[in-house]
Amino acid sequence: MNMMSDPNASRKDWLGLLAKAPAADVAHYWAELAMAPDYTILRNPEIGGVMVRGRAGAVGAPFNLGEMTVARASVKLSDGTVGHGYVQGRSKDHALTAALVDALMQTDEADRIGANLLTPLRTAREERMATRAAKAAATKVDFFTMLRGED
Question: What pLDDT shows up at residue 117?
Fold first, then answer.
């Protein structure tokens, strides 16, 4: 689905980034912003589990792969904007920060948060992916067939 056909595509992008980012990284960049938004908690941060489903070859019939621990939270800013945070793992602080970022990204603070929190998280994610790809490439084995010389 492209960005033009889905008006929530950018929100899905930042929520996905926050959900998968290491909690320490999110906390670090959030602290650097030094923001103290006025908000109320709609859903206290809590820990639970979700069933992860998969597909063989990404096209087969869906099957239950296993469970994953998640933390979630929801907040409402003083202007009425609601934010939700679902993150992998058990960090309630991470979930609360993700909910605050989600809410603030829907306000005039979006550019500031995007530049100072989401961009560094995205860059760090890309670096981790590149490092992982390089390690995988280093273990690649090329198999080839030699002719035996038989007719």
Answer: 95
Q: Which residues pair with 70 in a beta bridge?
A: 48, 88
Amino acid (1-letter code) at residue 10: S
Percentage of the chain lying above the pLDDT 90 cut: 70
- pLDDT greater than 50 at residue 1: no
* Alpha carbons 59 and 139: distance in angstroms, whole number: 27
Q: How many CB atoms within 10 Å of residue 11?
A: 15
- Cα–Cα dist 60/76, whole Å: 40
What is the C-alpha to C-alpha distance for residues 93 and 44, in angstroms, rounded to an integer?
A: 10
Residue type, position 11, single letter = R
Helical residues (DSSP H) of the chain, grouped into ranges: 9-20, 23-33, 92-104, 110-113, 119-138
Whether the pLDDT of residue 77 is over 70: the answer is yes
Which pLDDT does position 2 carry in this prediction? 43
Instruction: Please check the confidence at residue 33 and state whether its pLDDT lies above 90.
Output: yes
How far is Cα 23 from Cα 44, in angstroms, rounded to an integer? 18
**For residue 72, how many C-alpha atoms fall within 13 Å in the half-sphere facing its CB?**
11
Residue 135 to residue 122: CA distance in whole angstroms: 20
